[in-house]
Design goal:
About 25% of the residues lie in helices and about 25% in strands. It is of the alpha/beta class and about 550 residues long. The chain folds into 3 domains: about 325 residues, 3-Layer(aba) Sandwich (Rossmann fold), CATH 3.40.50.150; about 90 residues, no CATH class; about 80 residues, no CATH class. The strands form 8 sheets. An 11-stranded mixed sheet has the order 2-1-26-3-23-22-4-7-9-8-21. A 4-stranded mixed sheet has the order 10-20-19-12, with no helix packed on it. A 4-stranded antiparallel sheet has the order 11-18-15-14. A hairpin with a 2-residue loop joins strand 1 and strand 2.
Length: about 550
Amino acid sequence: MPTLHWIGKEKIIKHHLDVPYRVLEHKYGFTEKGEQKSPTESGNMIIHGDNLEALKSLLPKYEGKVKCIYIDPPYNTGNEGWVYNDNVNHPKIKKWLEKTLNAETEGKEATIGTDDLTRHDKWLCMMYPRLKLLHKLLADDGAIFISIDDNEVANLTLIMDEIFGENNFIGYYNWLKSATPPNLSHKIKKNLEYVLCYSKRVNSNKFVGIKKDSKSDDPLTKPQNSIKELYFPPGTLNIKLDNKIIKKGIYGTAKFPNELLNDLVIKDNKNENLVGFKNRFIWVQEKLIEEIGNNTKMNISSSSLVLSYKKENYNNEVPPNLISLDNGVETTENAGRELLSIFGNKVFDYPKPHSLIQYLINFLCDENSIILDSFSGSGTTAHAVLNLNKQDGGNRKFILIEMEDYAGTITAERVKRVINGYSDKEGTSGSFDFYSLGQPLFNEEENLNEEVEIEKIREYIWFTETRTSIGNKNDIFLGLYNDTGYYFIYEKNELTTLDYKTLAQNVKTKAERYIIYADNCLLPEPFMLLNNIEFKKIPRDITRF
């Protein structure tokens, strides 16, 4: 397998392991009634903070549980401000970072030099640890979708092959982002962007595309297809012509001829006989019979005998790799007008339409899936999730992460307005909780950070042991799970000891097994074995993510 090498890779490849685990600080909850101090417990989250650290903070609760990840990272065009600076102190990284920061573009200082290859090194160092954590969060039957353009699509594919595995590569979807692309080049107008897709594990699950409702038929022929013969059984053609017999011959147009292979007998707007055509059909005979069996309507609407079809249900179609208005997905111009309708003024450059993310989510997510976006921008992913829930009464959850200051004024504000309604749009209803990144759980000496609230530490311990939500944050006894009692004997600024006295004072709930955390243990090993007690030393035996 080809691998990609860049300056700083040897330092960054395990950087995600060194990222501190920070607790999430709840700032407010939001429902249709407005903001509230208490959590909504809705499962919908918006996190303000560095997305690398925020992803790490999600691991205890969400590792392996996110069904769909959509991200729209910086495209690294060379002209944009760069804010994704990791604390990486390797001499090589310092060298290329200094060179990049001092590079000039058109005589002006620039954060990223357009002609300096090190901007690709920097982008890769930014993306790699984030992709490692996203891989951990993704469910085994989940998939990740990444919007990207020509600047980094080749590099991104190589590091995705490395992290997710080349066998899990699904493909490139091509989104028609603009019907009127700008003249930025003398060579090419770019109206497509890529959506790179990988699964977590190789599986046979079928992606399901959703096609918008359309009053018009779809053509049964395409000029680029090979010439084939199709035969329609009696009564399978809907024909908008009077009763008559049409002789075999060439119909259609001079440019797109349609050959009728035998006489067509029309009675009561149906073909009374088996009839064959020769044309550049999109289907073979087997596919035609399958579609007829699925109640797909085969239509002729004029004397030119042009054939078209209309499906009864498009929902079982595997999605094509071209994403456009034909799939109900709008352009970035539509997305800009939508944001203008929400906010009353321009707040974001080149936004994605919520219909794009809604379309991707529907490929694989059920009504209870978790959807994550760690470059959330204007909050489009939450908009898509809320819309889907409104449409089918689902209970999908969104997790958004945004490091910029507009996380509150744009990202969260958009979600609020979508919930309550904006312009002439009815609200979707829903709720979410807004968080910021708090203190790291462990200090530089790898001891528990005593500035962190004890309730947060207990919650973390419980998650590491059970992968469930804690029921009791306010006591040494954390709870009972699978007949195991969990205890966390910890005091700030004091050493705690597990001995007979501590045991008698604190362990009062009967269980088949006991896991007890403390700084030291004085209980004899035979006694612990006899009573199914497992001692875990603080902080040595606390799980790190």
